[in-house]
Amino acid sequence: MIKIQKQMIVENEHLYGPGKRLLLYLKGCSIHCEGCINPHLWSFEGGTSISENEILEICRIEKLEGLTIHGGEPLDQANELIKVVELLKENSFTVILFTGYIKKELNNVQLKVWNKSDLVVAGRFENEKRNVNLQFRGSTNQRVYKHSGPYKNYKLTDGYTTAIITIYDDGNMDINGFLTEDVSKLIVSN
Ligand code: SF4
């Protein structure tokens, strides 16, 4: 079981990857990048749990292309996340992983999750390197690794800005995409 904050079915290639996908926001992040637009996801408290079989079932029923795993920090739950990634790959669904870690920081299980994912977007968000016109990345130090299968030759479409802000009934908010520093300060500080 992994602990998540939210799950959504999404279709926005620029932000989440090709096709119709299950997007999971995992709960908790131990990295705490300065300028992170989702600090409410840092706490490991609360959230709900979802199993690898439930995730597979959603992908099958909704006829999805695959899973996109966002943070919080997904690799902080690598011991459970590896079961999800392996099961989806065995069943021909694609996996896209967003992580704040870089490869040399990973332990063996985290590395397994990284290697089995079809596409990995990696690295801290660095405020001074912010660039709102990159696909998948919020700062220029972040890297995209295209490992296998259908995304091996994936062409990134940098050059335009997209942001989706979702505000929930309980007052919580998810921001996905890329905000200028001014807009980010305005939203995150409120
Ligand atoms: S940007 Fe990602 S890795 Fe960095 S603090 Fe925010 S959730 Fe964690």
How do the helices and strands line up, and which of them pair or pack?
Elements: E1 2-10, H1 13-16, E2 21-26, E3 48-50, H2 52-61, E4 66-70, H3 78-90, E5 94-99, H4 108-116, E6 119-122, E7 143-146, E8 163-167, E9 173-177, H5 181-188
Helix pairs in contact: 2-3, 3-4
Bound molecules: iron/sulfur cluster.
Explain what this protein looks like in three dimensions.
By secondary structure, the chain is of the alpha/beta class. It has one domain: Alpha-Beta Barrel (TIM Barrel). It is built from five helices and nine strands, in the order E-H-E-E-H-E-H-E-H-E-E-E-E-H. Strands 3-1-2-4-5-6-7 form a seven-stranded mixed beta sheet. The protein has a two-stranded antiparallel sheet with strand order 8-9. Strand 8 and strand 9 form a beta hairpin. The N and C termini lie far apart (33 Å). 36% of the residues are buried. The protein binds iron/sulfur cluster. Residues 29, 31-33, 36, 38, 41, 71-73, 100, 124-125 line the site of iron/sulfur cluster.
Rg value:
15 Å
Main β-sheet description: 7 strands, mixed
Strand order of the largest sheet: 3-1-2-4-5-6-7
Low-confidence parts lasting 5 or more residues at pLDDT below 50?
Answer: none
Order of SSEs:
EHEEHEHEHEEEEH
Estimate the mean pLDDT confidence.
Answer: 91
Entry summary:
This protein is an alpha/beta fold and 190 residues long.
Notable traits:
single chain; 190 residues; alpha/beta; TIM Barrel; 7-stranded mixed sheet; two-stranded antiparallel ribbon; 5 helices; globular; binds iron/sulfur cluster
